[in-house]
Amino acid sequence: MIRVLLVDDQPLLRSGFRALLDLEDDIEVVAEAGDGMEGLALTKEHLPDIVLIDIQMPVVDGIEATRRIAADPALAGVHVVILTNYGFDEYVFDALRAGAAGFLVKDIVPEDLLHSVRVAARGDALLAPSITRKLINRYVTQPLHTGAGTGLKELTNREREAVALVAQGLSNDQIADHMVISPMTAKTHINRAMAKLHARDRAQLVVLAYESGLVAPRDR
């Protein structure tokens, strides 16, 4: 059972999402919150698999709430998915850096919402190739090179190759084809890289790949 916490200051949106999610046999909404502070408290209380959280809320916004969840070792199994009205914007980029697994636009069709919840619950990032391209464009206009490259020294050549392919928006099956290995081996390379780089999920791998310089915007 996938356990979901809804955090949004619009009761109508929460009730709509809840009605849709609760219809599924494998998904359960365990609680709702109207602001980020309440959402943090309920996350610690219920330990949901997924937190669907709005970016702009009173008291504590979605980015700060995401940052606090990602920084708490007791919440390591919680995947945060950002809800936004605007698609990929600077707020969403900041949320990804804070530790979000991905994002959803609030007018998402029901089938895509259900699919996205299940994808996030598996630990995969909600970063479609089109979204990855926008993330890359963010680095074209304002590249960031931090100390993130230090951890790359611990990766094997194959792990580095797999991370670079993740950053280009490839799925595990596509990475396996490119590297001429099995999808299971590709997943193993990615999981080991995530552990060595202390990345919560694939979304953070994408950010780390560009911040470290492992992949450059021209590699598109």
TrEMBL record:
Gene3D superfamilies per the UniProt record, alphabetical: 3.40.50.2300
**Which GO MF terms are attached to this record?**
DNA binding
Domain HTH luxR-type positions: 148-213
PTM 4-aspartylphosphate: list the residues. 54
Q: Which residues form the Response regulatory domain?
A: 3-121
Q: Does the keyword NAD apply?
A: no
Q: Is Transcription regulation set as a keyword in this record?
A: yes
Query: Which InterPro entries does this entry report, sorted A to Z?
Result: CheY-like_superfamily, NreC/VraR/RcsB-like_REC, Sig_transdc_resp-reg_C-effctor, Sig_transdc_resp-reg_receiver, Tscrpt_reg_LuxR_C, WalR-like
User: So which domain of life are we looking at?
Assistant: Bacteria
GO BP annotation list:
phosphorelay signal transduction system; regulation of DNA-templated transcription
Q: What Pfam families does the entry give?
A: GerE, Response_reg
Question: What are the alphabetically sorted keywords of the record?
Answer: DNA-binding, Phosphoprotein, Transcription, Transcription regulation
Q: What is this protein called?
A: Response regulator transcription factor
Tell me the organism: Streptomyces sporangiiformans
For this protein's source organism, the top of the classification is: Bacteria, Bacillati, Actinomycetota, Actinomycetes, Kitasatosporales
